[in-house]
Amino acid sequence: MSLHLSEAMAYLQYQLGAEVDSAGRAVADTSWSTQLQSSEHLWMLLEGAHVLTLMLFAGTILFVDMRLLGLVLRKVPVSAVADTVLPYTVAGFAIMVLTGSALFFANPLEYYHNPVFRVKAVFLVAAALNIFIFHWRVQADREKWDARDRPPTAARVSAGISIVLWIAVIVTGRYAAYDWFRCGQTTGVIAELAQCTEFETTLVHAEQELAV
Question: What domain of life (predicted)?
Fold first, then answer.
């Protein structure tokens, strides 16, 4: 199953949108992924927008979490704080996802086999799950504690977990951009976690399919 995913990432990176020669092989360095990666100005625009909207999204989430912890605006109802920042949170999230997806698309095979990126994905899923649980269970009786200085324990625990997880997402996302843990630069357990043997096999096969 993982090999099929690796091959799918290689297809995105080297073949999708590529020019085709007379033998039906994709011409090297002409795929949409490669063109995006080599487009200096567009890449910088995407990366800058991603970082800025991540700050907007995480910042508004942090503000609500701090209110839930009773650290700021203790006299303002939780609902008022959340409803005020919600449009900015949604806008930041939407642009962050779009730009993040584009950045991933520029180098999908290496990101897929980057162990730090995989850890980031786990933190992202955990953070999303925490948000779902908060809105589905913890917030169900918010009208009872909306105006309290300190919301109930469950709300504060959820806020604390949220802060930790989003910090983890930001930190791992930043380190995923470096090549310290990428296949070819690492060995041992980290290489096993990254499935680097599979990466090399997929890379050799992909290069054989290209018309250079």
Answer: Bacteria
